[in-house]
Amino acid sequence: MKQSLPSALAAVFLVVAGVVAYERTAVAESTEPSNGLPLEELRVFAEVFGRIKKDYVEPVDDRKLLKYAIEGMLSGLDPHSAYLDEEDYRDIRVGTSGEFGGLGIEVGMENGFVKVIAPIDDTPAQRAGVRSGDLIIRLDEQPVKGMTLDEAVKQMRGKPGTKLRLTIVRDGQDKPIEITVVRDVIKTVSVKHRMLDPGFGYVRVSQFQARTPEDMLTGIGALKRQAGGALKGLVLDLRDNPGGVLNAAVAISDAFLTSGTIVYTEGRIADSQLKFKAAPDDVIEGAPIVVLVNGGSASASEIVAGALQDHKRAVIMGQQTFGKGSVQTIVPVNERTAVKLTTARYFTPNGRSIQAEGIVPDILLENVRLTRGEDSVTQLKEADLAGHLSNPEGNGRTNGAPKKGSSDTKSADSETDYALSEALNLLKGLAILRPDVAA
Fold it and tell me: pTM for this one?
C-alpha cells in the first residue's frame, strides 16, 4: 500500500494546488504576465522533501526540515541575511547592549570559511592574537567547511573559562597557524579616550552600541577640560570596528557636522527609504579631525568615515575599509524567532554606495608598525662651537634641545603605532594652519 505523505509535505502540495488553480483562473481573465509562485520549483521542493522523509538514513522531524529550508533560503541571499532561532534572537538583542558570551570577534563567511571581520577590543580573541582578515578553517578538530555561519558561531560560544583552538589561514603565513582562545563573558567598552599631546585628543570607538554616542561625548568633554577648554585636533580611531547600531553611527557623525545629509538608504519597501540629516552643532568647534580606518572597519564605521569624508570635515587615513554597505532589518516572526533580512543599501552624502567597495582613505598607509632606532652619537650644532654668538632673544634653548614644557614628545602608543603617529603629525600640521588656534 502506498505510504501517505507527512503533514508538512501535504501542506506544500495544497499550496501548489492552490497556486495552480489561481493561476489558471488568472490566465483565463488576463493575458498579462503572471508573478505567481514558480510551480515547477515548488513541485521539486515537495519531491525533495518527500524523498528525504522516505529515504534519508535517519528519521528527520518535519519541523527541523522546514527550519533547514528557511535557513537555506535566507543564507543563499547574501552573507548577512539569516534565520534567528530563539537563542540567536536573544543573543543579537543582548549583543547591541554591550554584553554577551563568546570569543569577542565579528565574523562573516568567505568561500565556505569563517572570516574575521574584526576582533573586539579587550576580548579573549584580541588578546590571543586573532586579526582582521584571518580565515578560520578549523574549530578544535572540526573543519569549518560545510558549516553555516550560525553553526560556526554556536560552536565558538561556550562556557566561560573553556578553551577553543582556532586553526587560521593568514595572509603572509606559509602554513596555517593555531591560536587557542579562552572563552569569556564579553563586556565591551565601546569608547576609550586619552590625550596624545597637549591639545590633541584621541577617541577609540571599537563598535557602535546604543550608548556609544553618549560615551563618546563624555570622553570628548573630558579631553576638552584637560586641554583647557578646546581641542587643537582629534584622532577618531575606527580601525577594526565591525559596526553595530545605525543610529549610533548617525549620532557620532552628527556630533562633528553642522549641516547636510549624513547617510541615506534605498530599498524596495517604504520603511527602507531613510535619510539622516545633521543638526547645527560641532562638539569640537571645527578643530581638525583625522579618522583612522582599515580593512576591519565595516558597516557603521564606513557610514561615519564616508559622511565626514564627503563633507570634507575629516581626513580619512589608513587602508580601504571592508565594504559592507547593506542594511539588515530584524523582523520578528513570533515572540521567540525572527528573520534578519537585508532590506536596503547605504549611500554616503555624495551618493556613493559602500557595498563591496568600502571607503578609500584620503591618505593610504601601509599596515606596518614602527620600531625605535638606535640612538646615534649627537651631532655638533652651532651652540656647541667654541665662541659661538648668543641668541639675542634668549629663547631658553640649550644645545638645540627644546625647552621644558614643549610637546615634542609623543605618547608611547604613537611611537609604535605607525598610523596613529602619522595621524598626530598631520593634526599638528593642520592646527598650525588654523589662525584661530594658538601654537
Answer: 0.78
